[in-house]
Automatic annotation (TrEMBL):
CDD domains: SIS_RpiR. PANTHER family: GLUCOKINASE, HTH-TYPE TRANSCRIPTIONAL REGULATOR HEXR-RELATED. SUPFAM superfamilies: Homeodomain-like, SIS domain. GO terms for biological process: carbohydrate derivative metabolic process. Residues 5-81 form the HTH rpiR-type domain. InterPro entries: Homeodomain-like_sf (IPR009057), HTH_RpiR (IPR000281), RpiR-like (IPR047640), RpiR-like_SIS (IPR035472), SIS_dom (IPR001347), SIS_dom_sf (IPR046348), WH-like_DNA-bd_sf (IPR036388). The lineage of its organism: Bacteria, Pseudomonadati, Pseudomonadota, Gammaproteobacteria, Pseudomonadales. Keywords: DNA-binding, Transcription, Transcription regulation. GO terms for molecular function: carbohydrate derivative binding; DNA binding; DNA-binding transcription factor activity. Residues 125-264 form the SIS domain. PROSITE patterns: HTH_RPIR, SIS. This is RpiR family transcriptional regulator.
Length: 291
């Protein structure tokens, strides 16, 4: 992805590093990117209650030559579909506003992940999963139900699959790991110390570790391979939303890759699993009418 299409994400990521005045400029842009493309430098400075030189310093801090160039890149970001990636829900938002923000940010986050996902790393992950004699999905907190969802998907492949959200159980399983076992560790930040320790322990015992986490995070660095999942959301303030949706989507991609790699001879097995549920459901209204 080029620089223009990631400008909003870049601004969001740089917020903690900006001084107070430059942060005001960033917040005005993030709160309404479309409006910011129509503002002159004087109008933006007035909206942020800063000086025009501060706006120029803000641009240079992002590696951009000046305000006109920043407006062009901002417009390109909007055209790329990244408009709402950095828009957070505000305390005074009405239902129309916060529902629109959540839908839009989720769509934009999925598109961002789609563009950044390395298909070569994805293919290597599918290869590992196909060859695994046992797969463990680990997640803590908001990633725990994602790990459980993975177990529901992957057991259909006739593999020994488990999901665990208890760190003590995760550590015990990693301590007796063997070659041929795969540990898929799911973490939005990749900075949870216990999960990083578990990944190291599993690898020391001969297992392979697939990290589903942030690029260049401690977890990514200790994993056998890492599926980098970029999701810019503030999980310190609001419940995690987009990160979970992206994680689930990547797991769907992996499961599809495994299914396709198994070939058509494996489809009767999947059909048998699905048909086993028919007796547990009420028939649809159309079927009842026929009866």
């Amino acid at each position: 992805m080029d620089r223009a299409s990631t400008l909003l994400q870049l601004i969001q990521a740089r917020l903690p590093e900006l001084n107070r005045a430059e942060r005001k400029v960033a917040e005005v842009i993030l709160n309404n990117p479309r409006q910011a493309t129509r503002l002159t430098i004087a109008a933006l400075a007035q909206a942020a209650k800063v000086s025009e030189p501060t706006v120029n310093r803000f641009c240079r801090s992002l590696g951009i030559g000046g305000y006109p160039e920043m407006k062009i890149q901002l417009a390109q970001s909007i055209a790329s579909g990244a408009v709402y990636v950095s828009q957070a829900v505000e305390a005074d938002d009405e239902p129309e506003a916060y529902s629109e923000k959540i839908f839009s940010s989720t769509i934009a986050s999925l598109d961002n992940a789609r563009q950044r996902l390395d298909v070569q790393v994805l293919n290597r992950a599918v290869n590992l999963l196909i060859q695994a004699r046992q797969i463990h999905f680990f997640g803590l907190g908001a990633s725990a139900p994602v790990a459980l969802d993975a177990q529901h998907k992957f057991f259909r492949f006739g593999l020994a699959v488990s999901a665990h959200s208890d760190i003590l159980m995760q550590r015990m399983l990693a301590s007796v790991a063997q070659t041929g076992e795969i540990f898929v560790i799911i973490s939005y930040t990749g900075r949870t110390r216990e999960l990083v320790d578990v990944a190291k322990l599993a690898r020391d015992n001969g297992a392979s570790v697939i990290g589903m986490t942030a690029a260049n995070s401690p977890l990514a660095k200790v994993s056998t391979l890492s599926l980098d999942i970029p999701v810019p959301e503030d999980t310190d303030i609001y419940m995690p939303m987009s990160s979970r949706i992206v994680q689930l989507t990547v797991l769907d991609i992996l499961a599809t890759g495994v299914t396709l790699r198994r070939g058509v001879d494996f489809q009767p097995h999947l059909r048998k699993v699905k048909e086993s549920l028919v007796a547990t459901r009420y028939p649809m209204e159309e079927e009842q009418e026929e009866l």
